[in-house]
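Re-run requested by the PI after the first attempt was lost when the workstation crashed. Everything re-entered from the original request form. Ligand of interest: S-adenosylmethionine.
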Amino acid sequence: MKRSGPVLVHNRDSDEAGWRNRILQGHCVSQMERLPAGSVDAIFADPPYNLQLGGDLMRPDHSKVDAVDDAWDQFESFQAYDAFTRAWLTAARRVLKPNGTIWVIGSYHNIFRVGASLQDLGYWILNDIVWRKTNPMPNFRGKRFQNAHETLIWASRDQDAKSYTFNYDALKASNDDVQMRSDWLFPICSGGERLKDEDGIKAHPTQKPEALLARIILASTKPGDVVLDPFFGTGTTGAVAKRLGRDFVGIEREDDYVRIAQERIDAIEPLAGDDLKMAGGKRAEPRVPFASLVEAGLVAPGTELTDSKRRYRARVRADGTIAVGDDAASIHRIGARVQGLDACNGWTFWHVKQGQKLMPIDELRQLARQRMSLAIGA
Ligand SMILES: C[S@@+](CC[C@H](N)C(=O)[O-])C[C@H]1O[C@@H](n2cnc3c(N)ncnc32)[C@H](O)[C@@H]1O
């Protein structure tokens, strides 16, 4: 496959590093090779599908179906497609931060080959997502099932990458407090969102819906992160990233698509400030051990702890353990032992006296967290 020379397309919002918030025009492999190693937080890739169309696709009334028959989607053989896939996935893995993740979208024509290459190259598959289309194209010949979905693979850079971004609580909160599932329902890109040329013809055959990219970006990145799209097309990834307060870098070979994408992104107004804050649950909060409450002077050594019904008493030690008689251990273990249970949440079980009242030590933990966030300016 011929590689065009690398050309930087400038963008007003680009940073000093010269590649953030820009569209790099050229072959995705050579352009990714120019980016610094470990520099992007997430990758969304919508590579050629290799549809292998044998001639025009016709409707029963003999009209021609507007299928993806562009040169960029054509490969001589499965071997040629696999070699291309391995080349761009290798370049992408070098650019990805160690805790970054990659999304690749595809159809039955290519996604299984992409999945095998991802695993062969060391990526670790986290999920496959089925994007079920509410308005798919019919199967015109009536010889197969209607092809009503595409598959996304979400993978970490390595098997042992544990601290990749997954905004579990925000997704759950946005889904009526139910865990977000791996089957997503969205319409294909149509109506006002679909970019058209001067003659009203689709500007690109495979423009993805912004809602799909928004789900991906909100799930796996934080505001300020940088998202790379090596097959930028109309720049859907860049448009959504900009709106959601993320940076992007796009790579695209075709002049016309670069121009369309740049105009589209320039017109986007980013959301600001509080509108971008993510809902966080308990697991998003910083861990505060009981010892740090003692170190911070929020609980003095020698303080007596008791339960809400004042049945049990324990004494705080200088090392952050608590003791009943000579038996000293964590707030959780001592809480469990005095009740004869296997486990206990010491934060809600133990209380400190506040005058005549009792206050759960969990409230002191919240105070410690507030101080920590003020100290780091969060
Ligand atoms: C499936 S489309 C992506 C569409 C995009 N997600 C959107 O929403 O508009 C693939 C794009 O990759 C571009 N492309 C194909 N091969 C490429 C390569 N080797 N390097 C860079 N871009 C390439 C094509 O020109 C096409 O625009």
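Saved to the shared folder this time. Residues 27-28, 46, 48, 72, 204, 206-208, 231, 233-234, 236, 251-254, 257 surround S-adenosylmethionine (CB under 6 Å).
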